[in-house]
Structure formats: C-alpha cells, structure tokens
Amino acid sequence: MAYIKINRSNLIHNLSQIVLKTGSVDKIAIVLKDNAYGHGVDKIAKIARNFGITKAVVRNYTEAKEIEELFDDVIVLGGNIIPSPKLSYAVNSIEKLELCPERTRIELKVDTGMHRNGIKPNELQIAIGMIKDKNINLVGVMSHFASADELGSGYFYQYKNFQNIKKIINECGFDNVRFHIHNSAGILRTKEFKEDLVRLGIGAYGYNPMDNAFEKVELKPVMSLYAKKVSSRMLLAGERVGYGGEFTAPKDMIVSTYDLGYGDGWRRGDVKQPYITPSGKEILGRVSMDFITLEGDEEEVCIMEDANIAAKHFGTISYEITCALHANIHRVIVD
Fold it and tell me: Are residues 258 and 299 in the same domain?
C-alpha cells in the first residue's frame, strides 16, 4: 500500500526554528486541524508534545477529543460549543456569543482586516458587556493575518488594529487574557515577538510561505509520499497505456503500476504536462482512481518529498497538496 513517511527530525528542527523566534516553546500552539494538514494528527501531536508543546489548535470538538489528553490547552476554531476544562472556543460573532453557556472558555475573535470571521471592532464593547453579563470566561482575544506572507501594508494595518483591540480589552479590566494574531507567516517575518502566542500551522510542517524578499528561515518538509508496485509489463513501441490511451510508448519499455491515485487524494493533473517524481520519473498517461503508471519496475517509488514542488506543478499551494492526502494512507514515523 502507498504510505507516507513523517520525518520526526525535520519536525523537531522546524519547531526549534520557531522557538528561536518566540523565545519560548510555551508560546507555540501547534495547529493540528484537518489531520495535522494531512500529516496524521496522532503522530504529529505526540511528537509535538514530547518536544514540549502544551497547546494545540483544532477545527472542531471532534478533532479536539482526538488530542485532548496530550495537551493542557486546546483552541477550537469552530463547530458546536461543548464546554470542557481544557478547551477554549473561538467566537466569531455576537450571535455565537449569545449561544455560549455560562463559564464557557472562549477566544474572542476580532476582524482586524481579513473580513472572513470575527466580530467587527465597533462591536467590541457589546461583546465585552455580554461576556461580563453572562459570566463567560474570556481566555483569549485573537485575530488572523490575511497577507502576512506578502509585501505591502496589510500586515501592519492589521497589527495596528490588533494593538488597539488589546488596549481596549485591558482597559476593561480583563486580567490574564492572552492575545494572538500571528500565524506561521506572521512569526517568520517578525524580528521581535511580543505577543502571547503563535498559532503555528504550515511552518511546523516544513513550508515557509514568505515572499522571497523576506529573510529566509530554513524549514524542512516533514512529509514524503511513497507508492508501491502492483504489477509490471513490457510495453511495446506504439502500445498505449491507461484510460484513453493517452501515453504511447516511443520504444519498447518496462512499465509498472503503483498503488496511488486520485482516490487517495493525489492530483489527477494534466496528462499533457505530466508530474515528475523526485527521481525524475514521469507519470505516464492518466492518473486513475487507485493507480499511476511509471517507467521501470522498482518495488516502491518516492512520489513526493516537497509539497511546494508538487504545488507549483499543479498550480496550487502546499497546504492543498498535503491536506488532500487521505487519512487512510498509512503514516510511519522515521528519523
């Protein structure tokens, strides 16, 4: 069966690079949503916890329950609110705040400029009043950068807005509230980190989303994808292979099918622009649901070792490449 290698050493290297930015491992909350960006939440969570990370970020309550025992503090970004001592819930609207039971632990999200989720700044006083009246536990105040990985003023505009939000919250008498807006791009471009927390997603997994104009932090891809041979055959010159026969053998050649396809979350792509593996093998013809065809007869082949390269080929981003790989692909930890 096709499988994914998770490189423990590379993950630890990436986390160590971020600690150099934050000054403390305690300021890192690792983002484990969507199966740890496709890497395998069970394995990534254990490595992160052994490294010393005590905080995690997930998509919903179901994901939170998968990793709750490993962490002291879990931020839940969406879904139904089910109060729990370790969980704090991102609240994106006044309407959602109204539904919070008494003593619910929340992270109030404020829209500082991305205009996707979060209460508007002019709703902040209303939200503060509701939090006090309903005896809700305000654990944190958060926002999200829209373009920290790009040149331009957007990053500075949002950060300034967030500082204003912080000032208002402090003036309203809230003690022991944490503030966090930095994602991977935000922390990678920061010279002096002054916030309480970074929500570390794609950077943990080895991908630096920053524009080339920024100072580079060396990160190492954690995931590599392998496929195993199903069968081999001699393809004679002029014979075609796969659905539609879109690859014609230019010579007599040995070809093999491998157990990976779009049913596993691998991209189908354009047969006229075939994907090339790290060892230089072109995928021959169409990618089918469960199989690809390559020249040669190796027992297994590395299909991908850097999602940025695959993303560039398919016209997308590394996030989509890794997240698309199905959870039923076996993951194995290597050093």
Answer: yes
